[in-house]
Backbone:
């Protein structure tokens, strides 16, 4: 076994028993005899599993403080709390703080080893899943033939060789993080960190802690996103969600190129390229007083505008083919054969954008349907087209043939217009009509644009 277990207990007999017991089971071990030793070991290298006594030499609940310290660094690391002075309140407190298990001294050896085995398996599962998702995400390219994607790919090439700050606008799930990662990957900072600070997911009281870090009274340091990204790129996602008070401090950092940690006295110099993104119209946020205009101008040296997927429908067949191949490769699954011209996929509004399409392809790959009909059924069920289809069918059956034909032609031609992004020449060639005849047909059906 390659998992490493950190044992923290101030009782040398308990420490030695645990070390021998866990080592004999095939795990690597490290030990710490007090609070400060534990901090040193944790900060030096995070373990895969930690076993912590609640009461050490610092106070009655210093084990809980160490639990919180580990969870601040990596919330996925399982921590088993042990105590010789256990009560229900303490057990509940440790579990609420994120402990994997709580066990009372004297403990049953088999029960403890079962906890450790499950904790190690839990950590490995989360680690493997994260690695797979990272591998999958990092392998993706910005795919599309629409004018919007062609333009952005060109912008990425030009911006990667600069140090300019960038502001990416686009709806949720459209690929803003992917653009930022591609810029980082092709830049001179590519071997340095790429750190994401998500403004929409943070507790409003923790923005500055997450951004600037903290110097604690015990001398330990909690590093913030600015220091974690040193030499590399910091993506501030959903930057419009950051409170105005914190916005003013970010502006000061950009102006002075330095900052202080919370409770810190020394300036930390900044060497970070900042990229920001927002799914909200930032100009409206500025007008409504939710975002500082001076900060926006500091961040918006270059702006990238990413369209929603329903405005670049011609990219959908390319994305389907691309995701089908990549997901099959990464998950070692059979390659999917999804009809890229499936009208359900073309007509759908895609409120979740590219992320929703990717998730759909992944769902199909995992379910592994063996016929085109089964694939189509999964698509219909996932995109909730059934009721709409029923209404359309009932409408078609309750009108004269001429009106039903006209309705079909109108829907068919609108779908093709979307597919070919309004390119009449390409559309006419595909459906087998003369260009002039197609123009007359569109005019006769009162079809003016692709929306």
Residues:
């Amino acid at each position: 076994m390659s998992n490493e277990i950190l044992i923290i207990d101030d009782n040398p007999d308990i420490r030695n028993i645990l070390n021998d017991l866990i080592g004999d089971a095939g795990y690597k071990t490290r030990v710490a005899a007090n609070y400060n030793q534990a901090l040193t070991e944790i900060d030096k290298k995070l373990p895969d599993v930690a076993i912590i006594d609640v009461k050490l030499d610092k106070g009655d609940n210093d084990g809980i403080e160490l639990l919180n310290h580990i969870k601040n660094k990596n919330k996925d690391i399982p921590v088993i709390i042990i105590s010789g002075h256990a009560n229900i309140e303490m057990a509940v407190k440790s579990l609420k703080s994120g402990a994997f298990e709580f066990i009372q001294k004297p403990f049953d050896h088999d029960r403890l080893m079962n906890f450790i085995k499950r904790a190690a398996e839990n950590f490995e599962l989360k680690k493997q899943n994260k690695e797979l998702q990272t591998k999958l995400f990092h392998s993706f390219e910005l795919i599309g033939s629409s004018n919007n994607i062609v333009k952005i790919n060109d912008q990425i090439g030009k911006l990667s060789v600069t140090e300019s700050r960038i502001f990416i606008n686009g709806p949720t799930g459209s690929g803003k993080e992917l653009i930022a990662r591609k810029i980082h990957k092709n830049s001179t900072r590519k071997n340095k960190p790429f750190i994401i600070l998500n403004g929409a997911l943070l507790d409003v009281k923790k923005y500055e802690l997450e951004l600037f870090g903290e110097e604690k009274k015990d001398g330990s340091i909690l590093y913030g996103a600015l220091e974690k990204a040193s030499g590399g790129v910091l993506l501030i996602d959903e930057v419009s969600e950051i409170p105005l008070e914190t916005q003013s401090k970010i502006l000061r950092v950009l102006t002075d190129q330095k900052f202080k940690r919370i409770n810190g006295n020394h300036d930390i110099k900044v060497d970070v390229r900042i990229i920001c993104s927002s799914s909200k119209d930032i100009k409206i946020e500025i007008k409504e007083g939710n975002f500082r205009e001076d900060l926006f101008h500091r961040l918006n040296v270059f702006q990238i505008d990413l369209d929603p997927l329903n405005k670049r429908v011609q990219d959908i067949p390319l994305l389907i083919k691309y995701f089908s191949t990549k997901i099959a490769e990464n998950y070692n699954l059979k390659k999917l054969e999804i009809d890229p011209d499936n009208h359900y996929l073309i007509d759908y509004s895609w409120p979740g954008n590219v992320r929703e399409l990717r998730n759909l392809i992944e769902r199909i790959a995992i379910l592994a349907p063996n016929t085109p009909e089964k694939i189509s059924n999964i698509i219909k069920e996932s995109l909730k087209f059934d009721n709409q289809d029923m209404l359309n069918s009932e409408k078609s059956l309750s009108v004269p043939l001429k009106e039903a034909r006209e309705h079909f032609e109108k829907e068919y031609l609108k779908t093709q217009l979307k597919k070919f992004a309004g390119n009449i020449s390409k559309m006419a060639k595909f459906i087998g009509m003369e260009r002039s005849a197609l123009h007359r047909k569109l005019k006769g059906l009162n079809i003016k644009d692709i929306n």
User: Anything to note?
Assistant: Confidence is low (pLDDT under 50) at residues 386-398.
